[in-house]
Specification:
single chain; two-stranded antiparallel sheet; two-stranded antiparallel ribbon; 4 strands; 59% helix; elongated
Amino acid sequence: MKYIWQLADFPKFKYNATKLLALVEESVVLIGEVRGITKGFSDALQEEVSAQVMLSEAIKTSEIEGEYFSREDVMSSLMMNLGLLNYVLPSKNKKADAIAQLMIEVRKNYNEPLTLEMILNWHKTLMNHQNNVSSGALRSSSEPMKVVSGRYGDIKVHYEAPPSKDLPLLLEQFFQWYRSFEESTLGAIGEAIILSGLVHLYFETLHPFEDGNGRIGRAISEKVLAEKLQSHLFISLSSSIEKNKSSYYDEIKKVQRNLEVTDWLVYFIDILIQALKETVEVVQFVRKKTEFYDRYNAALNERQRKAINKMFNQGVSGFEGGMTAKKYISINKTTKSTATRDLQELVDINIFVRKGAGRSTSYDLNFE
């Protein structure tokens, strides 16, 4: 059986717009909710929401590909590249720096038309520290590009991409398709959503790089969505995909044999809805964090502030296990007696809520 890029009608994707209508309408409501909440935010608050979402996207798009970075490494790089730190931290992980820089590049160029030069620059940013990959260049090997699984002697081929020699023409067709895409039945936002889903599928079908296709493809999807909506959209598709990445690969695999893509778009829009719901949580978290510091910052000593910053830096997911005396001592390089006194003060002024007792005592932030 042929792959979709081998079919005569490629890339004339077919889908049932009626089956997508309810999902598109739910997405429209959530996009409106995010815009409504952030509309009254200061530039600084919007910048923090953007940083939190970029952090999630950077970490999760990498985890989908089996790379794991610490939140602190990626956040430090994001903050420095956004100009939010007035000092330079030593780089602990060049790959973490690279994915952070890619996130910033994608969002910086959201309102510019997608071009091959833009994608090649993103790939160069992402892969510049990978010695075994030609960064910023299309794959050129005469060997077939295959997506496989299994062990030597028992290899299963899931997909074979177009030959490298055909990529220049295929990418020219890709950009022509992208520039001329229209979807009149689901409204302007519906058109943006459908294009975002299809552009990702199309790009992954071409698989134009030796490595990094998934990360670049997800970045393109978010960039195109923001471009067509004509506004910066705070979402992390990868955060939703990573929760069940086997489904992501299954859906892409299924759709690579047939130009009927309704099921793929149902999957993609559902991922978008999940991402938008997570964005609402991030926005609410940033607002609570701001209100918290407005209320309590003057009452904190430097040690307490450092520990609380550490907790906030874990984002919406929270500080796993809560703050403990042992963690407080480690964060501040202080004594047990000082930690005990500081933590009790935070409970007394209602900043911390104590849980458990004895060696099981931990503390959570009180947002009430």
